[in-house]
Predict the structure.
Amino acid sequence: MAVTDYLRERFFPHMWCPGCGHGTVLNSLLRAIEELGLNKNNIVMTSGIGCSARISGYVDFHSLHTIHGRALAFATGVKLSKPGLKLLVPMGDGDALAIGGNHFIHAARRNIDITAIIMNNRIYGMTGGQFSPLSGPGKKATTAPYLTIDREFDIVELAKAAGATFVARSTTYHAKESIEFLKKAIDHKGFSVVEILSQCPTHYGRKNKEGDAPQMLENYRNNTAKIGSKALADDPSLIARGIFVDVERPEYCQEYDQIIERAMKE
Amino acid sequence: MAKARLKEQKIIRDWCKGCGICIAFCPKKVLELDAEDKAVTVRPEDCICCRLCELRCPDLAIEVFKQEEE
């Protein structure tokens, strides 16, 4: 199958801005699915609200465009009622970790077999460039004209602590690596999290003088390094990329099946 | 192994928004923006079919077709 077979081509060109990293995340995700040879009738994508959430409209899977921050809650419902389906949940940084922060940590704690993809552009793009919990201190946003003072979340550490059993991070510059991580995450039995740093040249890039889309991608190349690499050991201020967690733990739907069995015996 | 040769670089003009990512990171400088700010193949003979343009394109507008090996 070609990548376009997984697209609803009638909605193209998509609504994302020129150079928006979210398109590259969609691109990588479709290639991962294609390489895994998944049947699109077995895939459900749920999304919340925001630029990132528009992704569910572009894929030819079962899709639910739901409410802000609640994509994982809807996905949990779908998964529990039909555990045979593959659940993909792309979210923006605000959608996943501000509005949906609680759903995120509890989905990770339960280890329900869902793949969460966090398209982290460090800003609320759709509503005009307000800072998010991933912006970090010293950044400019429409709601922070004199710079932000909030520390950002570290998605990898948060997911790890909450109990996710697969956690990885890549960027839109590293498309091949993203595809590799997404394939592993989708194959993983349990709650998997893939953070992909995704450029927002329109708001974050412009306000923080990070240049155009190619320049922002170059920053991803220069400011990140693979875990275990010499570059990262020499300069720990770089953002680490790689697979941080890949462990097995009882999966929620399987555990729930046992409850049903026990209840039926009585 | 023979060098991979480009058969066609299909670019959907309607989908391309001219962000320039394919152009900036093409290792062989095969692409350029035309007068309408759309990516076009200008040096197809230099293409090594690495497909980085196709994989990074945020508009999903590029597809690289290799020549079949003889």
Notes: The domain at 6-65 of chain B is CATH 3.30.70.20 (Alpha-Beta Plaits). The CA atoms of residues 25 and 53 of chain B lie 8 Å apart.
